[in-house]
Amino acid sequence: MSGTTDGTGDGTGDGTGETTSEGQDTAAGGGDGNTQYGRKKFSRSPGHFADRVTADGADGWPVAAGRYRLVVSRACPWASRALISRRLLGLEAALSLAVVDPIQDDRSWRFTLDPGGKDPVLGIRFLSEAYDARETGYPGGVSVPAVVDVPTGVLVTNDYQRITLDLVTEWTALHREGAPDLYPEALREEIDEVMEGVFRDVNNGVYRAGFATGQDEYEAAYRDVFRRLDELSRRLADRRYLVGDTITEADIRLFTTLVRFDAVYHGHFKCNRNKLTEDPVLWAYTRDLFQTPGFGDTVDFDHIKRHYYLVHTGINPTGVLPAGPDLSGWLAPHHREQLGGRPFGDGTPPGPPPAVEEVPPAGRP
Fold it and tell me: Which residues belong to any copy of the GST C-terminal domain (predicted)?
């Protein structure tokens, strides 16, 4: 996520890599950072730093165990994609993890959750230091997810759309035994088509609604969100997963928005035609994924709520943090297994997360 913005231009909220209606790139990246909103229509741009970490090292960044550090916010849906993929593929030992504070200051993402307020591996206090090491004076947003080269401290990529696909297709030599194929070649065309609609109308649509600066703009985004959710609900009524009979990248990308829907998007972003819990199909589908190892064990509802409600001061100027919603329902039976499907295909579930990566009790149902 990139762009600390609140919709009023004071730089205290959420951007996620947006471009103004006049085409001026105001924040490159997939998540919250340092961008301010004016009175421009919200849209999202790709990551500014689009180098790839590949098996052949074509961009100068070869896959290597221990060389790179993945920097995420557990609040950010774009970063959560990478968290889930890394867990499912068993890359914890090969790609170390840094988790930033969900609350930003004027220098954006901070390592204040770590002892001394400094990342223990990179030795920096702010993710912006890795950006500066890559491009001095870079004017765009400081976004997550970000992959940083540990030996040099230089940002490699913040291309949130590509990072997870490369974890699946380029890091195969370091996958755990039994890792699932999250982007099977025979289904890629259909997966890409589904993901494009999910991205435009759901992942990005809730932001377009939440940061709309005019009624017509808001209502158009609102209609897109629920039109697409209704289509997805019909699609999932008689199939367990979005494409094929196993979990794919498409499910990961939809899950990261749905898991946040009632906690923040329904009220905070005014996507309030109905709650996720009021759509029996999507609610059961999301619970099914949440209860699948690698999904729910990466979700921190405390970080999610504190980021959205306390950082987006233009939307929530009082800074009051909602006490709800009740999280106990996330662990209720979903019965989606009756539809068949094999969550991991010919593979196996990941083991439990490393102890240092466990979500604290305050963030779990």
Answer: 181-308
User: 207 an active-site residue?
Assistant: yes
Top pLDDT among 169 and 24 is at 169
DSSP-derived secondary structure for 327-362 = -GGGGS---GGGG---TTTTS----PPPGGGPPPGG
**DSSP conformation class of 44:** B
pLDDT beyond 60 at 362: yes
Active-site residue, selected from the candidate residues 131, 207, 241, 308: 207
- The reply to whether 241 belongs to the active site is no
Tell me which H or E stretch contains 130: helix 128-134
Give 245's contacts (C-beta < 8 A, 6+ positions apart): 239, 340, 341, 342, 345
Of 74, 27, 20, the C-alpha closest to 46 is 27
Average per-residue pLDDT for the chain: 90
Domains of the chain: 187-363 (1.20.1050.10)
Taking the C-alpha atoms of residue 68 and residue 63, their distance in angstroms, rounded to an integer, is 9
Instruction: In whole angstroms, give the CA distance from residue 153 to residue 206.
Output: 34
Predicted TM-score (pTM) of the model is: 0.91
The percent of the chain in helix, strand and coil, each rounded to the nearest 5, is 40, 10, 55
Q: How confident is the model at residue 6 (pLDDT cuts 50, 70, 90)?
A: very low
From the candidates 37, 68, 76, 271, which is the catalytic residue? 76
Segment 201-223 shows an average pLDDT of 98
Question: What pLDDT, on the 0 to 100 scale, is given for residue 42?
Answer: 56
